[in-house]
Q: What sequence folds into this?
């Protein structure tokens, strides 16, 4: 088991946003989407951006999402090929002073940073309006499901991620997303996730972009949830150093980076599963329990 030093994290409130709202201020359609994607209660008290495929809390000071929450079904993996209009990264129309695609220009060549999705591109598909049509490159594309993909490419869903050894093929982040999608969800198991990045100390934030105002997280995490046959949550938490270390990358085991929910809460200040009773939270959060996941770890 990988060990980590517990550190205190500095947080910033999200200010100056056009579209972030509290749950009570959402319309009925947005509330339904929120309840689909945010499993067990929102981990903070901040306002959120509600999208078709995910819910996010965006930090306007760090200019990256604090966290994204999303529900994944097998049908949601029916995402169009990432090309043409589905490849384009877009400014978020609901964010004041939004990050643009151009703000990341040159970062890969100079520093190795890619535009990293927190809600993955691969989960942006599906016939979400049940009309028998999907987002597609041909003329039969569904405009509502097209929008779902476009929203996933909003820059408010993006944070700088090292491509080699982390975000790219064989990297820890990449391998974890593929494991969830290919080993778990592909077996028709619904999964919910919270994904986010953590900045350890505001005195030493690495910033990038033309104005050096886009923060680079020191750690990234995924809280991965499915339900057992009784509808009770089974949870794994992955906590990764944001590193491009390629040493033995093919042999690196993502399950070496598991921590408890309690541990993640202690270093992040977030409070997951707060809609559950204290007794239920203790059962979910105190330990790492692989018993409900072993069949997917082969």
A:
């Amino acid at each position: 088991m990988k060990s980590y030093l517990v550190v205190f994290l500095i947080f910033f409130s999200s200010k100056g946003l056009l579209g972030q709202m509290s749950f009570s201020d959402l319309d009925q359609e947005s509330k339904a989407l929120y309840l689909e994607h945010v499993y067990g209660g929102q981990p903070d008290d901040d306002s959120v951006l509600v999208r078709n495929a995910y819910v996010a809390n965006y930090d306007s000071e760090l200019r990256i999402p604090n966290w994204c929450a999303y529900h994944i079904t097998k049908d949601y993996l029916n995402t169009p090929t990432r090309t043409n209009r589905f490849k384009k990264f877009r400014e978020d129309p609901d964010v004041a002073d939004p990050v643009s695609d151009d703000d990341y220009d040159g970062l890969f060549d100079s520093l190795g940073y890619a535009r990293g999705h927190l809600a993955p591109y691969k989960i942006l598909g599906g016939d979400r309006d049940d009309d028998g049509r999907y987002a597609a490159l041909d003329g039969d594309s569904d405009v509502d499901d097209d929008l779902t993909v476009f929203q996933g490419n909003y820059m408010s869903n993006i944070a700088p991620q090292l491509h080699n050894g982390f975000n790219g093929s064989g990297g820890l982040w990449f391998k974890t997303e593929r494991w969830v999608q290919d080993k778990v969800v592909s077996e028709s198991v619904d999964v919910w996730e919270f994904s986010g990045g953590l900045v350890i100390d505001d005195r030493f934030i690495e910033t990038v972009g033309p104005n050096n105002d886009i923060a680079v997280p020191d750690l990234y995490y995924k809280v991965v949830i499915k339900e057992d046959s009784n509808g009770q949550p089974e949870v794994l938490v992955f906590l990764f150093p944001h590193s491009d270390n390629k040493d033995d990358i093919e042999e690196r085991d993502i399950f070496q980076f598991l921590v408890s929910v309690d541990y993640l809460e202690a270093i992040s200040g977030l409070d997951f599963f707060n809609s559950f009773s204290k007794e239920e939270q203790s059962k979910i959060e105190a330990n790492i329990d692989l018993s409900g996941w072993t069949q997917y770890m082969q």
In short: DSSP finds seven helices and eleven strands in the chain. The mean pLDDT is 91. The domain at 23-296 is CATH 3.40.570.10 (Extracellular Endonuclease; Chain A).
